[in-house]
Structure formats: structure tokens, C-alpha cells
Write a structure and sequence with these properties.
Length: about 90
């Protein structure tokens, strides 16, 4: 019997990428997550390496911006911190 209060199982085969920006210097800024799109690392790769990374990991591309999860002092990304939050 499944416990409704337990977290869903981790599925390491599900990998997600949310494109943040294709920069003029040829780098691609993106968020990468495994199993849960809400928990991610921010990455920066050259265009060709980004495309290869997505193919190799067979990622699911997430569209649009990351959903807001409320105003929380600890709920921010490095990009937000450097571009808007602490300026």
C-alpha cells in the first residue's frame, strides 16, 4: 500500500533542461535537473557542448520560466541573484 504522505520515488531516468539564455558570447545558460525539475543546477556550456549534453542525457525540455514558489529569502537562482535580486 502506498503512503500518500511519502514523497514520490526518484526516477533518475527523467532528466530535464530549462533553457535560460543563449548568450551573445556563444554560451548557453540552462538549468539541469534529474527526477524533479524544482531541484536543479545552473549550467553554462558552449552551444555545441550544450546540444551534445542534451542528446547524451536524452533530456525533457521544459518550456517557459520556472514557476514561482512564493517569496522566500532562500528561493532564488544564481542568475536571479546576479541580475536582479541583490542589485
Amino acid at each position: 500500500m502506498n503512503d500518500p504522505t511519502s514523497p514520490p520515488p526518484v526516477d533518475v531516468s527523467r532528466k530535464y533542461v530549462r533553457l535560460v539564455e543563449r548568450r551573445p558570447d556563444g554560451l548557453v545558460e540552462f538549468e539541469f535537473s534529474i527526477s524533479d525539475p524544482a531541484l536543479f543546477v545552473e549550467m553554462l556550456l558552449p552551444e555545441a557542448a550544450y546540444e551534445a549534453f542534451c542528446r547524451t542525457n536524452r533530456v525533457i525540455l521544459l518550456e517557459g520560466e520556472r514557476p514561482e514558489e512564493g517569496e522566500d529569502d532562500f528561493n532564488w537562482s544564481l542568475r536571479e541573484a546576479t541580475h536582479q535580486r541583490f542589485r
